[in-house]
Amino acid sequence: MKNWFRDGVMRSILRNAGYLASTKLIGGLVGLLALVCAGRGMSAENFGTVMLIHTYTLGVAAFTKFQSWQMIVRYAAPAMTQGDTATVSRAIRFACGLDAGSGLFGMLLAIAGLVFFGTHFGIASDIVPLAICYCTLIPTMSSSTPAGILRVMDRFDLLSLQQIATPLLRAIGCSLCWLCGLSMPFFLLSWYIADMGGDIILWAMSITELHRRRMTSSLRPSLIAAPRSLPSAWNFVWSTNLTTSLDSCKEPASNIILGSMLGPAAVGLYRIATSILSSAVKPALLMEKGFYPEIMRLDPTSVRPWVLGVRSGLLAAGTGLAMVLGIWVLARPVTALFGEKYHVAATLLMIMAPSIILSMGGFPIPSLLFMVGRPRALFWSHVVGTSVWFAVLIWLTHHYGIYGAAGAYIVAPALLVLCALIPTLQSFFNRRTLSPPTQRDLEEETNEVEAVTNTGS
Q1: Where does the chain cross the membrane (predicted)?
Q2: In angstroms, rounded to a whole number, what is the distance separating the alpha carbons of residues 336 and 342?
């Protein structure tokens, strides 16, 4: 393995992941403190209601937003290496326009869903107005332009600092609510302030970086002029939106299903377990954030990006195995911090823990498929995996309650990795038929992504 780390790209991936991981651990611990304070300061039902409102808002934001950061990396990363600031500026302007439009649409959609179906989601009728107010977060939640700007400009140090902001603000707010004996609406308000504050800080960092490079004009939104000079830009953002929307809506959808079938208290238990697991999977997500920009600069016809993918996946899977063992040992002491009324969360956590290995080990696959211009294959992998997972989740929850939902949690990453691995292996064995990224046949990629867009519509 010593030879692995002699590769400059591998070292760059790990360095960028290290920047993010250095503060993500702190953010995870501080976020856990916020959950503990909220769990102890509210009843199980009220805690579950807060989690249900938060995950519902996150789900709608994830479902409606465009992955503008991926579009920025796709077009601006190669341009930055060539000093083409005009293309970088056009990509950012297009991303700003996408975020503005999708954020407004997502907010209106979420409010409409609560007005007509809020009580069917497990939210009490007197709490629905609070949930509607919480949906005003969606325009900032669905904006990933500032993250894309900082990634392209290699400011992972700023991204790592920003990761502390939201959990720290949330922990401060929940601690004050708990110590002062405040009611559930104040806990929800602390969640709102923390999310808004974290998003504002992220935007401030990206604007400062653009100002330093004299590129603040890039923040003018453009949905018509800017994408005209970016080959297949609209098709790319539609395909990535369809794919990531399916992936991002899994956790919020599972919370809504549990809320409607088992009630808010079950959502609270499930949320405790998934929050701890999400923190454990962060290293893979952090590696992906550094892996994707680096892999897009490499030649897909060579062995190098594929070897990097295998090595990165093995490193992440090994880390995941260690985390699973740690969770099995510490599950009960950690969940005991929330109080005796949440003791079931320890069992759920132990059942769901093996999913970490699958999620972390398979993180390079989407980036490799994007590298070879096969978003359609990734999209269909998500369609198949998500459809089967929804059916399994409902069936197991109906027959085995909250423990069935925990068992279904392992099915989602297993199906996704299996379905996406097949086209990835095909692309590897046929890599010599591909063109280098600087001469790639954009017309062929356009036709393929258009097929994804039409099918998804």
Answers
A1: 21-41, 47-64, 100-121, 127-150, 171-193, 268-287, 308-330, 342-365, 377-396, 402-422
A2: 7
Q: Identify which of 52, 46, 337, 60 has the alpha carbon closest to the alpha carbon of residue 187.
A: 46
CA dist., res. 274 & res. 271, Å (int): 5
Domain that holds residue 104: 2-456
**Residues 228-252: pLDDT tens digits?**
778 777 877 776 666 666 666 777 7
Rounded-to-integer distance, Cα 221 and Cα 165, Å: 26
3-state secondary structure of 434: coil
pLDDT per residue as tens digits for the range 394-445? 999 999 999 999 999 888 888 888 888 988 888 888 877 765 544 344 334 4
Contact assessment for residue 270 and residue 407, using Cβ atoms and an 8 Å cutoff: no
Residue 278 CA to residue 423 CA, distance in Å, equals 27
Number of domains in the chain: 1
On whether the CB atoms of residues 48 and 267 are closer than 8 A, the answer is: yes
Greatest pairwise CA separation for the chain in angstroms: 66
- String of b and e for 316-345 (b: at least 16 CB within 10 Å)? bbebbeebbeebeeebeebbeebeeebebb
Q: Which one-letter DSSP state was computed for residue 407?
A: H
221: nearest Cα among 157, 107, 139: 139
- Cα–Cα distance between 415 and 57 in angstroms, integer? 26
Inter-residue contact 272 to 331 (CB < 8 Å)? no
Q: What is the pLDDT of residues 95-106, one digit of tens each?
A: 898 889 989 999
Contact (Cβ atoms closer than 8 angstroms) between residue 154 and residue 74: no
Spatial neighbors of 250 by CB under 8 A, at least 6 apart, are 386, 389, 412
The pTM assigned to this predicted structure is 0.69
**Mean per-residue pLDDT of the chain:** 81
Quick one: which of 12, 77, 18, 9 has its CA closest to 303?
A: 9
